[in-house]
Task: structure prediction
Amino acid sequence: MNKAVFLDRDGNIIHDPGYLSDLKKFRFYKNSVKGLKLLQDSGFKLVVLTNQSGVARGFYGEDFVKATHKYMSGLLEKQGVKIDAYYYCPHHVDASVERYKKDCECRKPKTGMIDMAVKKFKIDLKKSWSIGDKLTDVKLGKNAGTKTALVLTGKGKKQERKIDAKTKPDIVSANLYSAAKKITAGLKSEAK
Result:
């Protein structure tokens, strides 16, 4: 069985300009690539899970989402990081593009995207983590049975104020790199 880190994309790995629809606006957070490398080097599969309601709202198509992930992978590979899989949800109940208008199982915090990754990579959810800048990422992890981390980049600082008993993450970190350091430090102490 493999262990994985399920990573939100916008506001966690890269800056969230609000419906990223132009690769000129694509920017990694400082040290987010170092965080991904640390997790990868600690034996985690890296799986990006992203809600992309911009598709449902007609702001961009699925081809752009796929092109963004290809572009991101190319940049990461140059720094020794491999994303094992990307999953995205193009649906929304308030979609303006009719074919994407639905209450699906893949939109976070539902676990459809994690379920696909578990099946493909034989992932042990108890040894896995979910990291993101929104409480929906924390709820996703809780729903799936992973440990959870909320980062304070993106929408994280506003979301942190809304934490309650049901959405309390295992860790809160300044950013992805800080979360990765805490997670990997925990692995080292478990091995002792």
